[in-house]
Structure formats: structure tokens, C-alpha cells
Design brief:
Helix content is about 15%, strand content about 35%. The protein is rod-shaped and about 135 Å long. It has one domain.
Length: about 190
């Protein structure tokens, strides 16, 4: 009988312990749920002079002589909503002899020297005046043939526009070696996410 009472007492104490431990660990709680969440990727979309894709030819200059100069300003717009860094370069540069005149023929072989002698300057032309002035800085200055490395044209925020100018010049020190020569090239602009 004592054994039985001891077992009943032990079971009763165990039940009280289990019930009280549950009461000791009861905490207030509340759960909230947010629904309809989504992730949307940003966009970067470069347009040049409001064209996308860019299909126009920016430079067609004929009858160039030493001292010839000109410039073109292009409007580059980030039509997307994410910021990027703008860069540019010349690609597909080809020099040809064109029509070789007698003064050029007297110099020897005519391989097409125009791209090696024509200078270009590239910059963000804030006021579109064809001059690097004020706070504007030159992104590239050198020959057409050497303009294949990337020019840093700075940041371009989503929805923003940058005015990029390219100025060409044939120095007056250039002689008969460029007579009749032809230089063709492509202009490539790239907008890279920052």
C-alpha cells in the first residue's frame, strides 16, 4: 500500500510539474503578414539623339585639307531608371588610299594615312558650343587611329542626358600624304551599370 501511495504521489507531483511548466513558458504573441511583395529589376537603355537603336551617320566630311575642322554634339540619354557610367570609343577604323594624286604618288606608297594624321577631341560638352571650357574636361585627345581605347564620359543617372562632342582637326603641318585618302570608322557608346 505504501508503494501504491508513493506511486500515486509521484504521478500527482509529475502532473503538477508538467502543468506548471507549461504555465511558466506561456508568452504573449502576435503574428503579422505582409502580402503582395515583389522584386523588379531596374533598366539601363541608352539612346543617341533619341534613336534606339542608333542608326544615323554622324560624320560625313569631304574635301578635307590641312586646317579643316568641325564638331558634332550628340545627346546620349539613359532611358532606363538605373544609373550607369558612360564610355565611348571608335571601332572598325579603316584607312584607304582613295584616289592617289600625283603629289601624293611622288611620296611613295599610298597606304591611306588620313586616320594617322587626323586629330579628334572628345568631351562632355555641357553647353554644346564645340569648345572644352568651364568645368568640362577632355575624355580623349589624339589621332583617329588611336581612339580605339575606351573614353570615360562620366556617370549618367536614370532619365538623364549627356551632351558628348567630338571635334576633328587636320593639323596644318600635315602634307600631301593624305591627299585623296579615306578613313571610315564607327562610333560606339556604352552605358554600364554602376
Amino acid at each position: 500500500m505504501i508503494k501504491r501511495r508513493a506511486i500515486i504521489a509521484f504521478l500527482a507531483l509529475s502532473m503538477v510539474a508538467v502543468m506548471s511548466s507549461g504555465a511558466l513558458y506561456a508568452y504573449f504573441n502576435d503574428t503579422e503578414t505582409s502580402s503582395g511583395n515583389s522584386f523588379t529589376a531596374g533598366t539601363i537603355d541608352l539612346t543617341v539623339d533619341a534613336q534606339n537603336p542608333w542608326a544615323s551617320t554622324e560624320f560625313t566630311a569631304e574635301n578635307l585639307v590641312p586646317g579643316s575642322t568641325g564638331f558634332k554634339t550628340m545627346l546620349l540619354t539613359n532611358a532606363g531608371n538605373s544609373p550607369g557610367t558612360l564610355s565611348g570609343r571608335l571601332t572598325n577604323i579603316n584607312n584607304g588610299p582613295g584616289s592617289t594624286s600625283e603629289p601624293e604618288a611622288l611620296l611613295g606608297t599610298d597606304a591611306g594615312e588620313l586616320g594617322a594624321n587626323m586629330m579628334i577631341t572628345v568631351w562632355v560638352d555641357s553647353n554644346s558650343n564645340g569648345l572644352v571650357d568651364g568645368t568640362e574636361t577632355t575624355a580623349y585627345s589624339g589621332t583617329v587611329n588611336s581612339a580605339t581605347t575606351s573614353w570615360n564620359l562620366g556617370p549618367l543617372a536614370g532619365g538623364a542626358t549627356s551632351k558628348v562632342s567630338i571635334k576633328y582637326l587636320i593639323p596644318t603641318s600635315v602634307g600631301n600624304e593624305i591627299q585623296g585618302d579615306i578613313c571610315t570608322f564607327s562610333i560606339e557608346y556604352t552605358l554600364t551599370q554602376t
